Amino acid sequence: MLLRFFRFFTGFVRFRAFGGFGERFINLCSQNDILLWDVETVGDEFFAATSIEGYKKIRTAAKNSGMTVRLIKKAGFPFLVFRYRKRIGIPVGAVFFIITLCFLSARIWLIDVDGCKTVPPETVLSAVEQAGIKTGCSVFSADPVKTALEAGNAVDGIADIKINIIGSR
Description:
The protein contains seven helices and four strands. It has 169 residues and is an alpha+beta fold. Strand 2 and strand 3 (45-51) form a beta hairpin.
Protein backbone atom coordinates (compact mmCIF):
# COMPACT_ATOMS: atom_id res chain seq x y z
CA MET A 1 0.00 0.00 0.00
CA LEU A 2 2.81 2.40 0.87
CA LEU A 3 4.60 1.50 -2.34
CA ARG A 4 1.48 2.29 -4.39
CA PHE A 5 1.18 5.67 -2.64
CA PHE A 6 4.85 6.46 -3.32
CA ARG A 7 4.47 5.49 -6.97
CA PHE A 8 1.36 7.66 -7.30
CA PHE A 9 3.10 10.58 -5.60
CA THR A 10 6.16 10.39 -7.87
CA GLY A 11 4.17 9.49 -11.01
CA PHE A 12 4.36 6.49 -13.31
CA VAL A 13 3.52 5.46 -16.84
CA ARG A 14 2.03 2.27 -18.26
CA PHE A 15 3.34 1.25 -21.68
CA ARG A 16 3.10 -1.43 -24.36
CA ALA A 17 6.15 -2.95 -26.04
CA PHE A 18 6.00 -5.09 -29.17
CA GLY A 19 8.22 -6.40 -31.96
CA GLY A 20 11.89 -7.27 -31.51
CA PHE A 21 13.27 -9.31 -28.61
CA GLY A 22 11.29 -8.88 -25.41
CA GLU A 23 13.64 -10.80 -23.14
CA ARG A 24 16.60 -8.72 -24.30
CA PHE A 25 14.58 -5.56 -23.70
CA ILE A 26 13.85 -6.58 -20.10
CA ASN A 27 17.51 -7.49 -19.53
CA LEU A 28 18.66 -4.12 -20.93
CA CYS A 29 16.15 -2.34 -18.68
CA SER A 30 17.56 -4.24 -15.70
CA GLN A 31 21.15 -3.35 -16.66
CA ASN A 32 20.25 0.33 -17.02
CA ASP A 33 18.46 0.38 -13.62
CA ILE A 34 15.03 0.88 -15.15
CA LEU A 35 12.52 -0.62 -12.75
CA LEU A 36 9.53 -2.35 -14.38
CA TRP A 37 6.49 -3.63 -12.51
CA ASP A 38 3.12 -5.19 -13.35
CA VAL A 39 4.66 -6.89 -16.38
CA GLU A 40 2.12 -8.88 -18.40
CA THR A 41 2.65 -10.72 -21.67
CA VAL A 42 -0.08 -11.05 -24.28
CA GLY A 43 1.09 -12.98 -27.30
CA ASP A 44 4.29 -11.42 -28.64
CA GLU A 45 3.81 -8.08 -26.87
CA PHE A 46 3.89 -7.14 -23.22
CA PHE A 47 2.58 -4.43 -20.95
CA ALA A 48 4.46 -2.94 -18.01
CA ALA A 49 4.69 0.14 -15.82
CA THR A 50 7.70 2.24 -14.88
CA SER A 51 8.56 5.59 -13.33
CA ILE A 52 8.70 8.80 -15.33
CA GLU A 53 12.51 8.76 -15.28
CA GLY A 54 12.51 5.11 -16.29
CA TYR A 55 10.31 5.85 -19.28
CA LYS A 56 12.68 8.60 -20.40
CA LYS A 57 15.61 6.14 -20.28
CA ILE A 58 13.69 3.25 -21.89
CA ARG A 59 14.20 4.46 -25.47
CA THR A 60 17.81 3.22 -25.69
CA ALA A 61 16.87 -0.23 -24.36
CA ALA A 62 14.02 -0.43 -26.86
CA LYS A 63 16.27 0.63 -29.75
CA ASN A 64 18.99 -1.91 -28.86
CA SER A 65 16.47 -4.77 -28.60
CA GLY A 66 14.39 -3.86 -31.64
CA MET A 67 11.24 -3.19 -29.58
CA THR A 68 8.67 -0.49 -30.23
CA VAL A 69 7.33 1.21 -27.08
CA ARG A 70 3.97 3.01 -26.96
CA LEU A 71 2.60 4.93 -24.03
CA ILE A 72 -0.77 3.70 -22.73
CA LYS A 73 -1.44 5.71 -19.59
CA LYS A 74 0.14 8.46 -17.50
CA ALA A 75 -0.83 8.43 -13.84
CA GLY A 76 0.22 10.10 -10.62
CA PHE A 77 0.45 13.38 -8.82
CA PRO A 78 2.80 15.20 -11.29
CA PHE A 79 0.39 14.59 -14.16
CA LEU A 80 -2.56 15.64 -12.02
CA VAL A 81 -0.86 18.92 -11.12
CA PHE A 82 0.06 19.52 -14.76
CA ARG A 83 -3.54 18.95 -15.85
CA TYR A 84 -4.91 21.57 -13.44
CA ARG A 85 -2.02 24.05 -13.62
CA LYS A 86 -4.18 26.87 -15.04
CA ARG A 87 -6.93 26.50 -12.47
CA ILE A 88 -5.53 28.79 -9.80
CA GLY A 89 -8.63 28.51 -7.63
CA ILE A 90 -7.87 24.92 -6.61
CA PRO A 91 -4.49 25.58 -4.92
CA VAL A 92 -5.69 28.91 -3.51
CA GLY A 93 -8.74 27.16 -2.04
CA ALA A 94 -6.59 24.36 -0.63
CA VAL A 95 -4.23 26.84 1.04
CA PHE A 96 -7.18 28.82 2.43
CA PHE A 97 -8.72 25.59 3.76
CA ILE A 98 -5.49 24.56 5.50
CA ILE A 99 -5.01 28.00 7.07
CA THR A 100 -8.62 28.06 8.26
CA LEU A 101 -8.35 24.55 9.66
CA CYS A 102 -5.16 25.40 11.55
CA PHE A 103 -6.69 28.58 12.93
CA LEU A 104 -9.95 26.99 14.04
CA SER A 105 -8.30 23.90 15.54
CA ALA A 106 -6.18 26.18 17.75
CA ARG A 107 -9.30 27.51 19.48
CA ILE A 108 -11.33 26.21 22.41
CA TRP A 109 -14.88 25.62 21.20
CA LEU A 110 -16.46 23.61 24.01
CA ILE A 111 -16.09 23.66 27.77
CA ASP A 112 -17.61 20.76 29.73
CA VAL A 113 -17.99 20.43 33.47
CA ASP A 114 -18.01 16.81 34.68
CA GLY A 115 -18.27 15.25 38.11
CA CYS A 116 -19.49 18.33 39.95
CA LYS A 117 -22.36 17.34 42.29
CA THR A 118 -22.37 19.98 45.01
CA VAL A 119 -21.76 23.14 42.97
CA PRO A 120 -23.79 24.04 39.86
CA PRO A 121 -21.82 23.70 36.60
CA GLU A 122 -22.72 27.30 35.64
CA THR A 123 -20.81 28.57 38.70
CA VAL A 124 -17.71 26.58 37.73
CA LEU A 125 -17.96 27.78 34.11
CA SER A 126 -18.20 31.43 35.16
CA ALA A 127 -15.19 31.02 37.48
CA VAL A 128 -13.14 29.40 34.70
CA GLU A 129 -14.12 32.19 32.27
CA GLN A 130 -13.14 34.86 34.78
CA ALA A 131 -9.79 33.08 35.27
CA GLY A 132 -9.02 33.25 31.57
CA ILE A 133 -10.36 30.27 29.62
CA LYS A 134 -13.52 30.87 27.64
CA THR A 135 -15.11 29.65 24.43
CA GLY A 136 -13.22 30.94 21.39
CA CYS A 137 -9.94 31.75 23.12
CA SER A 138 -6.64 30.45 21.77
CA VAL A 139 -5.28 27.15 23.04
CA PHE A 140 -1.78 28.62 23.12
CA SER A 141 -2.72 31.59 25.30
CA ALA A 142 -4.64 29.44 27.82
CA ASP A 143 -2.76 28.45 30.96
CA PRO A 144 -4.66 25.48 32.42
CA VAL A 145 -2.66 25.25 35.67
CA LYS A 146 -3.04 28.94 36.54
CA THR A 147 -6.71 28.93 35.52
CA ALA A 148 -7.43 25.84 37.65
CA LEU A 149 -5.83 27.43 40.71
CA GLU A 150 -7.69 30.73 40.27
CA ALA A 151 -11.05 29.06 39.56
CA GLY A 152 -10.58 26.63 42.46
CA ASN A 153 -9.92 29.52 44.87
CA ALA A 154 -12.88 31.51 43.54
CA VAL A 155 -15.52 28.80 44.04
CA ASP A 156 -16.31 27.46 47.52
CA GLY A 157 -17.09 23.76 47.86
CA ILE A 158 -14.66 22.54 45.23
CA ALA A 159 -11.67 20.45 46.26
CA ASP A 160 -9.91 20.27 42.94
CA ILE A 161 -10.32 21.46 39.35
CA LYS A 162 -8.63 19.74 36.44
CA ILE A 163 -8.51 21.49 33.07
CA ASN A 164 -7.66 19.46 29.98
CA ILE A 165 -7.38 21.37 26.70
CA ILE A 166 -5.72 18.58 24.72
CA GLY A 167 -7.90 16.67 22.28
CA SER A 168 -10.90 17.38 20.17
CA ARG A 169 -14.46 16.29 19.75
